[in-house]
Amino acid sequence: MKDDSFSSKSVLERTVLAGIYGPPELKREERRYYLGQFRERVIKVLTFEQIAEPGIYPEIRDAMVHPLAKTLIISRRAILSAAKDYVHLARKRQLEFTTVDSPDFKGPVGLVVAAAKAADEEVISIPSRRERLLALGIPQEVIDSPGQNLCKTCMDLLREKAPEEVRNYRRENLIDRFLGNQCPCKK
Known about the structure:
37% of the residues lie in helices and 16% in strands. The chain has helices at 3-7, 11-21, 28-33, 48-52, 58-64, 84-92, 129-135, 140-143, 152-161, 174-179, and strands spanning 42-47, 69-75, 96-100, 109-115, 149-150, 170-171. The strands form two sheets. It has a four-stranded mixed beta sheet. The protein has a two-stranded parallel sheet with strand order 5-6.
């Protein structure tokens, strides 16, 4: 049902159509894709796959400090245990947080950082962490091991190529070496 055809109907026809199909919605398909938000209010999005990856996307961290950022929205279809770091970060940044669940929501979007009014961000999608780091020359073993200890060589490489990712890793120390906790590049 299109809005322009709806507005050309008589009052009686509009009342009947609204009773059958519900009231007309502005940009319905767009809102179904972005978890209930209009595209112009969306600052950044993550897919379900990206939410499940370990570590926090720096682009989402940056989006949460955007001057217009107001709400973090996560689909209940996402793995909520994987999204907990984003929830903690939203609380720390004093953003509203909500989970949504509707059979109407379609598409791969599982997390949205949204503004209360139009933010008009040109690029809202984020390339996968794996793709971005591989393109920068970070070894696959390091990419697959956020939260683990890295040797000096791997940490220096990460600092040089992707400094925003350093906080997702720890620097290997003497105790780690003594306990046998090795950098992923040595396994």
